[in-house]
Amino acid sequence: MRTIDDRIVHELNTTVPTASFAGRIDASQTCKQLYESLMAAHASRDRVIKNCIAQTSALVKNLREEREKNLDDLTLLKQLRKEQTKLKWMQSELNVEEVVNDRSWKVFNERCRIHFKPPKNE
């Protein structure tokens, strides 16, 4: 799901012209399309990660409730720990997303700021 972020530098180098080639390609349209692709990819990943966090949080809550009822069940304890670890991993993935998104927007703005101005509300 991060392909667009992984390839943003290459994408910009191949589609947004330098000053000497500015007349041959419509850089504003290219930057607009890339902007829309980045926005869609970032929103999609954010939605998926948050959905996973919500589902895992609900499972952890249920396991905690079961654990309180049956303190001697080691299998239940192992499952609870496993799900708690998964939840922490997913929450840290949101931090990774923030770093990846910031890097992509920095590169995008460096190359496209002259050709395209994103809408103010986004």
TrEMBL record:
<dbReference type="GO" id="GO:0005758">
    <property type="term" value="C:mitochondrial intermembrane space"/>
</dbReference>
<dbReference type="InterPro" id="IPR019171">
    <property type="entry name" value="MIX23"/>
</dbReference>
<dbReference type="Pfam" id="PF09774">
    <property type="entry name" value="MIX23"/>
</dbReference>
<protein>
    <recommendedName>
        <fullName>Protein MIX23</fullName>
    </recommendedName>
</protein>
<comment type="similarity">
    <text>Belongs to the MIX23 family.</text>
</comment>
